[in-house]
Amino acid sequence: VVMQGRFHAYEGFPMKEVTYPIYVMKALGIESLIVTNACGGINPTFKPGDLMIIDDFINGVSTNPLVGPNDDRLGPRFPDMSEPYSSKLRDHARHTAHGLNIEYKEGIYTFFQGPYYETRAEIRMYGKLGSDAIGMSTVPETIVANYLGLDVLGISVITNMATGLRTGKHSHDEVVAIANKASLDLCKWVTQMLNTWDF
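^ thats the sequence. predicted structure below, dont judge the formating
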């Protein structure tokens, strides 16, 4: 199953609707999930166009898609998040990237609701908390996938450096242009991972 785009909380969708496709995938028999995103770089060693394997996440918003009554048929009331991104899938991603000579970074992704580019003070705060990148998606889907027992791999495209780490104002057109360019390597990477998938 491949999704073309996704829903975002900043568009006004409740978290349950943002993550509904993950429930559908689980019902269809999916066992593993690859989530991708475009995001801003906080780690000063990153640059626009870099690809980053997500090691862990920080939920920077006050809610998550599991708030509310729990259906024990789907998952536990308090799902474990000690390994939200599967170590075996991260190893597979690393091995595949090396075989393709694709350079990548690794780091912590922070979920920021938006819809605005973060302030300098917010970026300083998240940087001190250990964030390497920040964006407006991915974490809700990751939370639900773990709740449902799916293995998750996350890959970010660093499309811009975050506020305070770049010169000039943010441009959505610039973000889209960098994402389109980096997507060539990302698509090659994911395709090869799927071609050699044996989990």
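The chain is about 35% helix and 20% strand.
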